Amino acid sequence: MKFITPFLFLLSFFHAITAGEITVSTTASKSLVPNYLEWSLQIKSIKPSLDESQAEVVEQLNALIKVLDELNIAAEDRAMQHFLHGKNMVYDNKARKQVQDGFYSSRNLQFKLRDTKAYTTVLKKLLVLDEVTIQRVNFKSSHVEATKESLLIEALKASKIKGEKMANALDMSLGKPLLINEGLHYNPKSYQLSHSDAFAARTSSLSEDNSTALQAIQVDVSVTVVYETTGK
């Protein structure tokens, strides 16, 4: 598995000068290697009766919990979500209207996989459960907040350096900051299960070490600072 070396760059992309003030905008960015995967699952059953559909969901949920226990997924890394049930409505082409076709029950669940190399093992175990659908797998990092704080400091330092250069060029002195605005852009990568992966996992042709490639997570922080300026 290839690991991406985190990198950092600073970019000053905007500045403005008004009487007695200088506005400087800078950004700081860093790439993080995901250190856990967040799986979103749905259990859904459609049966002739509501009792049957609910019983099927409970059975599949118990089987899923057993799998999570086998994978040593800690209780605090699991989260039960929506439980829905009702009439299963489908479109009847002949009648040209929605008609009832049994009853549905569904339950959503999320869990965190902290061993990112165990992706294939988890995938194979989940695909054995017929009523369990893998909705998405998000690449996450537990270092986002700490990274945000360090990037904010870097961006502020770059802003001051840039402001001093601008003020010196105009034969002025940079004063105290009058206003600071910050922004954060953090977009965790999402992996959608492909048909080829699902087929390979079901037929056991997917090797245990064939884990999905971890995509880098980009964290961007921007700051806009308005500085007071005075003549030299």
Count of separate DSSP helical elements: 4
Strand order of the largest sheet: 4-5-3-6-8
How many β-strand runs? 9
How many domains make up the coordinates? 2
Low-confidence sequence ranges:
1-15
- The CATH architecture term of the largest domain is 2-Layer Sandwich
* Proportion of beta-strand residues: over 45%
Which structural class do you get from the secondary structure elements?
Answer: alpha+beta
CATH class type of the largest domain: Alpha Beta
In short:
It contains four helices and nine strands; from the N terminus they run E-E-E-H-E-E-H-E-H-E-E-H-E. It is an alpha+beta fold and 232 residues long.
Topology:
Layout: E1 8-18, E2 21-32, E3 36-47, H1 50-70, E4 78-92, E5 97-113, H2 119-127, E6 132-140, H3 144-169, E7 172-186, E8 190-191, H4 195-202, E9 217-231
Antiparallel strand pairs: 1-2, 2-9, 3-5, 3-6, 4-5, 6-8, 7-9
Structure, described:
The protein has 232 residues and is an alpha+beta fold. The chain folds into 2 domains: 126 residues, Translation Initiation Factor IF3; 105 residues, 2-Layer Sandwich (Alpha-Beta Plaits), CATH 3.30.70.2970. 28% of the residues lie in helices and 47% in strands. It is built from 4 helices and 9 strands; from the N terminus they run E-E-E-H-E-E-H-E-H-E-E-H-E. The strands form 2 sheets. Strands 4-5-3-6-8 form a 5-stranded antiparallel beta sheet, covered by helices on one side. It has a 4-stranded antiparallel beta sheet with strand order 1-2-9-7, covered by helices on one side. The chain is elongated.
